[in-house]
Amino acid sequence: MERNIIRIDEEKCIGCGLCAQACHEAAIAMVDGKAKLVREDFCDGLGNCLPVCPAGAITMEKREEEPKPLPCGCPGTNVQTIKGPEHNEKQADVHVSTEVLGTSELKQWPIQIKLVPVNAPYFNNAHLLIAADCAAYACGSFHRQFMKNKITLIGCPKLDDTDYKNKLYDIISGNNIKSLTVVRMQVPCCSGIEQAAVSALKDSGKFIPWQVFTLSTDGELC
User: The domain containing residue 47 runs over which residues?
Assistant: First the structure.
């Protein structure tokens, strides 16, 4: 089986470190002043590192790979069957009541980071939740446990072609945010949303309570 993977020419590498910063998978690291692909199994083959390299030291190539029980690439794409509570036929009926669905704790719309206006009125005196969009699917009690009484923003640094840090900085610096909570998944690419939120808060110069929660793919707190 072939897959795309990057190749770094160390002779061309000037050691700027931009590729390591652009890699949300933590597949690239700086070693002895040079960029190195330290985890081939983490490389997702999307090539976010290619356009930032000023020396043209990074190329993409196809490599043959032996099948593995858990496929390589970003650990967040590993195929897993997650066992949840058993359901009977009545529970599986699509015609479910509002009582069965539970109460939504969503306080605003839109919820995508890249769509929300930075000066929306609901940010005033808000407790802000910034979450990876997979988190609500992994954690069955996500609304009750994390979203209640908060303004919720979601995103995926792997799939969204945008700089979260700048947008989040504008939201935090331009509004009276009371607290910040970040919920991410336990996969390397999810570190991007945590880094963006924490960096935006620090750059804003504001001192407000903040915390980060990490969920495993079966919805448990790590």
Answer: 2-74
Overall number of domains in the chain: 2
Say if residue 198 is in the same domain as residue 115: yes
Task: For residues 107 and 1, give the distance between their C-alpha atoms in angstroms, rounded to a whole number.
Answer: 46
- Flag whether the pTM goes above 0.70: no
**Sign of the CA dihedral 167, 114, 221, 75?**
negative
Of 130, 134, 105, the residue nearest 180 (C-alpha): 130
33: in domain: yes
Cα gap 22→158, rounded to integer Å: 11
Tens-digit pLDDT profile for the chain (222 aa)?
677 889 999 999 999 999 988 887 778 989 999 999 988 878 878 888 999 999 999 999 888 765 544 444 455 544 443 344 554 444 445 555 555 556 889 998 889 998 888 888 899 999 999 999 999 999 989 999 999 999 999 999 888 777 789 999 999 999 999 999 999 999 888 888 998 999 999 999 999 999 999 999 888 887
Question: Radius of gyration over alpha carbons of the chain, in Å?
Answer: 20
98 lies in some domain: no
- Distance in angstroms (rounded) separating the CA atoms of residues 65 and 120: 48
The CATH number for 30's domain is: 3.30.70.20
